[in-house]
Write a structure and sequence with these properties.
The complex is a heterodimer.
Chain A lengths: L1 E4 L4 E4 H18 L4 H10 L4 H25 L5 H28 L2 H29 L22 E4 L4 E4 H18 L4 H11 L4 H26 L5 H23 L3 H24 L6 E8 L2
Antiparallel strand pairs in A: 1-2, 3-4
Helix pairs in contact in A: 1-2, 1-9, 2-3, 3-8, 3-9, 4-6, 4-8, 5-10, 7-8
Chain B lengths: L1 H12 L7 E7 L3 E4 L5 E12 L11 E7 L2 E12 L2 E14 L2 E5 L3 H4 L2 H7 L12 H9 L2 H12 L3 E4 L3 E3 L4 E9 L5 E11 L2 E14 L1 H12 L1 H22 L4
Parallel strand pairs in B: 2-12, 7-8
Antiparallel strand pairs in B: 1-3, 3-10, 4-7, 4-11, 5-6, 9-10, 11-12
Helix pairs in contact in B: 6-7
The chains are: A mainly alpha, B alpha+beta.
Chain lengths: 306, 255
Amino acid sequence: MQIYLPIAEMPVDMFVILGIGAAVGFISGMFGIGGGFLLTPALIFLGIPPAVVVATQAPQIAASSLTSTLAAWRKNAVDLKLAGVLLVAGLIGTQLGVMFFNAMSKIGQLDTVIAVSYVALLGTIGLLMLVESVRSVLAIGRVKSGARKHEESWHAKLPWKMRFERSGLTISVLPLGALALAVGFAGAVLGIGGGFIMVPALIYLFRVPTLIVVGTSSLQILFTMLAATILHAVTDRGVDLFLGSILMVGSVFGAQFGARAGAQMRGEYFRLLLALLIFSVALRFGLDLVAPPIDPFTATVTETHR
Amino acid sequence: MRRLLAALFCLCVLPPLAQAEMLVAAMSRSRIDITSNFTGAELAVFGSVERDAATIARASGYDVVVTVRGPRGAVTVREKERVGPFWLNTDSRKYIATPSFVAVLSNRPLAEIAAAELRDKLRIGVDTLVTAQGARSKAIDEEEPDFRRALIRIRRDQGLFSDRDDAVSFLTPTLFKATLFVPGAAPLGPYDVDLALFADGAQLAKTTLSFRVIKSGSEEAVAAYARTNPFFYGLAAAAIALLVGWLASVVFRRD
């Protein structure tokens, strides 16, 4: 069934969009991430203008983050104070990201910026996770070689320390803010929630308990993406309500089944699969940058007289 | 002086309204409304060749070329080149006032209707409609035709530029019909429909029609609101996101 998108100004097959939403939702529910890093390339491949894709992802990610936040809230797994700190920095990052996005879009380097950032971000995170998960998969069945020794944390000397009761830690606001700023920026530029950066960073760098990380990062992403929705609507006007609504419906359904499938999987295999997924997306974008393009020419409409 | 004489001569010899043939045409609709299930629309152009009493019928018959042009806009064509290990956008050309949609419909191949020089002069044919504007840029354009060719190729692949030499059919020797398909991805705005009548390789008459492609119904309502009240539109999008997210968590609650 074809439906005409009012902002993208083109017809798309509604069931294809629903299917993409459901598939990405399945993966996102399974791994507890937004899934924007898969949705963006899929929608651009369908011929939807990149500006519309990135802007429309914001409300879609907001919808799925609210579902995860509510689930975590019921388990009392949300650190409001930590989420607040991440949020303030994240909002600044989002605003900077939207400005950067519009500037690059004008210069014509947007596709390069998106490709390079994807490769750098996903490649680094995917590789780190791959190494870690292969090690733990190999270690299955072996006896644990004792608890990790307590080391002086790298951010212990930074000023402006803050106590986060729910997460049970006292850390400086500076590295937390820098992380949230970077995630907010990447979210606005790449149309991703940034969960796949935020979650491992909070776990590995700041040693926040895993359960609380998922709930807190969902809440932070929820607010960041709500703000991004409004900022995109006001600045580049790319938010397509029709496209967004179809995606949301598809992805919340997919996410439920994904969450069930994910819960039944062994942790080590789970992380290995996620690492492979992230790494293969990075590889695909990397190839795009390096391989000779099928058509070296692209045409962009820069102004229309109506 | 010689020019003045020539003008006087013309005035005396040729009757007023000098054309021997006239083209009269009308379209099946002057507006294409885009609703949420729009996937394209067909449009028919009917025309008749009107001859005055003094004109004798032409043995070779008539040819008609219908050129449909969508709203114009500036297009930037970029070329990716190898920079170290990467392929990056390096060079670009800007084409101002380029039609976003072109369909050239005729009753037989353009090459058989008129010579290439005449087609260039009259701007008949897809390739003649995309040119860099102004003398200086025209020189650049001719030096590097790659960008122009690439633009035409890309638009053809998107189905936005097309030519069909079987889209015009003569119902009688002087009455013809042209069918135009406006695809779902057709840009919104005003479209010009230029009709040109040819016989024996020369243009005899021409006329222009127009139609508009506009959003209507919910499409227009949503787009207009996004344009006029972007902040509240953004708020509405955020509210829908919250509603869907909340509904999902209620519907699928497992505890």
